[in-house]
Design brief:
362 residues; alpha/beta; 11-stranded mixed β-sheet; 5-stranded parallel β-sheet; 10 helices; 16 strands; globular; binds threonylcarbamoyladenylate; binds magnesium ion
Length: 362
């Protein structure tokens, strides 16, 4: 064993490749073996890779926080593979939650419910609620089933970094700190699940994500966005209902500025900012979309895909942010996208990654 940092012992992280079309039973069992014995296993979901531990094992959950260097006041999401398992971790499932589970599970929707007492305090950061979701991914579902327990899984990145959408990203952050990674290829959605609090009336979105607000509205009629979702400046801690929203998040090493507004004005403003920073000797990157990629000259120009397909923008967002770091960029100037569909989740991540350095182009 090797020493890592101050006190931590390094472990060997096992990489297990699994075909999502036909998950290899032996490898799923190997992963589940670690979870059952209190270990930590990263696995793909449809949104991002999660880092799993047995929810009912307080020591394992504590190790999860340590491996990620995650603040203890920010509870992870509990993942289940069965509707029946929800009642193991939640005190009650209100009718509205049941309807949403039927409509959106398995899928990128996390529900905040009243917690059951069997969930250790550390797994919910001492709150009286618990976040639960059923992921839409064969590998995730097989791992949870084989583990035989609810699986607490935050995104499998070091706290503050962009979430991992490939096994490679998990290893960049957590190699030597966790027991295994199940590599099921790149994730399909690319941004995390939508977090919806159904303990309040009307239900409230605490984090926008892979299930668009518009889809929730269609089903629920009345549903609200927590002000933190669309915030353009840091939200005061007292107003934050979802603990994760008060911590630094999604940030690449480079500084990031988001330019928002009507597209032609955005292009103009991005070019002005690029020219300004190039003159100051910075290594500059531009994060843009397919429609505008030809309009920029900087050290690195990356397109997230067509702004007509916000699904592809969401899918490539976190990987692009990580790539800028490996290219040694000092400053990233990013184009905003409309706050519609998955655009709401993309803009929430970009604004937070920038530390709310938002420029309005006119
Ligand atoms: O797509 C996802 O949700 C991914 C994959 C792995 O499932 N997971 C994920 O987990 O993004 P994490 O832990 O990185 O984010 C969980 C979010 C945080 O913003 C946290 O504050 C919030 O859910 N949350 C957890 N429990 C909560 C609770 N009881 N009340 C309010 N917010 C809660
Ligand atoms: Mg996260």
């Amino acid at each position: 064993m090797l020493r890592c940092g101050s006190q931590r012992l390094m472990k060997k992280t096992v990489l297990l490749r699994v075909d999502p079309e036909a998950p290899n039973v032996e490898r799923i069992r190997a992963g589940a073996g670690f979870i059952r014995s209190g270990g930590l296993v990263a696995f793909p979901t449809e949104t991002v890779y999660g880092l799993g531990a047995d929810t009912l094992n307080a020591k394992a959950v504590l190790a999860l926080f340590e491996a990620k260097r995650r603040p203890l006041d920010n509870p992870p999401i509990v993942h289940v593979c069965d509707f029946g398992d929800v009642i193991r971790v939640a005190k009650e499932v209100p009718a509205v939650a049941e309807g949403l589970m039927r409509r959106f599970w398995p899928g990128p929707l996390t529900l905040i419910l009243k917690r059951s007492r069997v969930v250790p305090d550390v797994a919910v950061a001492g709150l009286d609620t618990v976040a639960v979701r059923m992921p839409r991914h064969s590998v995730a579902l097989a791992l949870i089933r084989e583990s035989g327990c609810p699986v607490s899984a935050p995104s499998a990145n070091l706290a503050g970094k962009p979430s991992p959408t490939m096994a490679r990203h998990v290893l960049e952050d957590l190699d030597g700190r966790i027991d295994a990674v199940l590599d099921g290829g790149p994730t399909a959605v690319g941004v995390e699940s939508t977090v919806l609090d159904v303990t309040v009336e009307p239900p409230q979105v605490l984090r926008p994500g892979g299930t668009p607000f518009e889809s929730l509205k269609e089903v629920l009629g009345r549903v609200e966005l927590n002000p933190a979702v669309t915030a353009e400046r840091p939200v005061s801690v007292e107003k934050v209902r979802s603990p994760g929203l008060k911590h630094k998040h999604y940030a690449p090493d480079a500084n990031l500025v988001v330019v928002e507004g009507e597209l032609s004005a955005v292009v103009r403003r991005v070019n002005e900012l690029v020219a300004y920073y190039l003159k100051r000797g910075s290594r500059v990157g531009v994060l843009c979309t397919a429609e505008t990629a030809g309009s920029y000259r900087a050290h690195v120009v990356k397109s997230l895909g067509s702004r007509g397909e916000l699904g592809s923008v969401a899918r490539s967002l976190f990987a692009c942010l990580r790539e800028f770091d490996s290219e040694g960029v000092d400053l990233i100037v990013a184009e905003g996208v409309p706050l519609e569909g998955l655009g709401l989740a993309v803009m929430n991540r970009l604004r937070r990654a920038s530390g709310y350095k938002i420029v309005k182009a006119t």
